[in-house]
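Aim 2 progress update. The chain analyzed this quarter is reproduced below.
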Amino acid sequence: MARLNLPALDPQSVAEIRGSTYPEPFRSRVGDRSKRRLGDACGLTRFGVNLVTLGPGGQSALRHWHTLEDEFVYVLEGEVVLVTEAGEQVLRAGDCAGYPAGKRDAHHFLNRGAVAARYVEVGSRIDGDNAFYPDDDLMWVTDENGTFAAHKDGARY
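Predicted structure tokens:
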């Protein structure tokens, strides 16, 4: 079979990124999560597209909401528990969820099953976007040296 050339690509040819950029004690909570940054590999700059594998016991992120970024998720395999302000619901292959920018409905996925789940996540890339984590003492701060993780009182991790 011929090898694909951009703009097409085989998702398995994109490097797998494991873990999280969260500081501890949050990083370890994500558990077994890997992403393939498909949008970056295709040269996209206005929105991101990731192929995510969430292992048993893993979580997609800390529960959060974005000020400017729209997010969309489509489940390909397995099942995940979507946790929002309204509670929990199970999403299975073929289900999807969308999170409008600015809607203060913090969300994330948990994999409580015994097998890995896979989904595609899509998000807009808007300068000045900020994420809020209502359950955790975390925020991101940007200064002249870049962006860093901080406690909600502004102190660096």
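The chain has a mean pLDDT of 94. The longest helix spans residues 27-30. These observations will guide the mutagenesis experiments scheduled for the next reporting period.
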